[in-house]
Amino acid sequence: MSPPLGLTGALEPLSEVWVYLAATPLFGLTLTLGTYVIAERVSARSGRHPLANPVLWSVLAIIAVLWATGTPYRRYFEGAQFVHFLLGTATVALAVPLARLWPELRQRAGTLLTALLLGASTSIVVALGLAWMLGASPVMMASLLPKSVTAPIAMGIAERIGGSATLAAVFAVTTGIVGALVVTPLLNAMGVRDWAARGFALGLAAHGIGTARAWSVHPRAGAYASLAMGLHGVLGAVLLPGPARWLMG
Do the Cβ atoms of 179 and 165 come closer than 8 Å? Predict the structure, then answer.
């Protein structure tokens, strides 16, 4: 049964746009920006509910579109790489709110450093302990080790210690999404009200995705999350590879 003539006429422009986008790098860029804008609006309308995390739903929507259209990831990334390129600029821009808090950060340097070391160590011990109990392979454990470090750094660490960069990226992104989902109810249940503490904990445990969640909730939480993400990334890149190679044998 053919569709009504009116519906066919309405779909023709959309079909032409789809054909054009699918044949150019604009497809990946348009899909990425479009899905995130929609997910961001839904998140705002929900009052920033943790389950309405825009990153989570954007990822799921993009996966669904790529699967439904049979679009290879390589073709999608030809357009999405423009957004990927801007990640470096966005990361550097996080220094602006940190500069405004510099006097306060200097006073709390000892406390923040202690929290950083304890949080990073706990992440490693828990991840490797659970992986070992479940009988994970050395490659799996090496890929899981840097899961709480931001994805690009985690991929580099995993490769240097005999893990898989692909698995490391998957674990890092999953950690970030789960952290962003559970942080609000968890910290509320623990009675943590200070925005600095909440933000630092989220940036430390859930890197970039957690930091984005912190910025959407409160600017002070976002600033401290940015600090934690940056410090954890540097600490992981410098200190993890040596001991990890020894530990993996």
Answer: no
The alpha-helical segments, DSSP class H, found in 46-194 are 54-69, 73-93, 95-100, 102-107, 109-133, 138-144, 151-160, 165-190
| Helix H or strand E encompassing 94 | none
Do residues 142 and 161 lie in contact, with contact meaning Cβ atoms separated by under 8 Å?
Answer: yes
Residues 6+ apart with CB under 8 A from 69: 22
Inter-residue contact 146 to 240 (CB < 8 Å): yes
What DSSP state is assigned to residue 1?
-
pTM of structure: 0.74
What would the pLDDT profile of 113-168 be if each residue is shown by its tens digit? 999 999 888 888 888 888 888 888 888 888 888 888 887 788 888 888 888 888 88
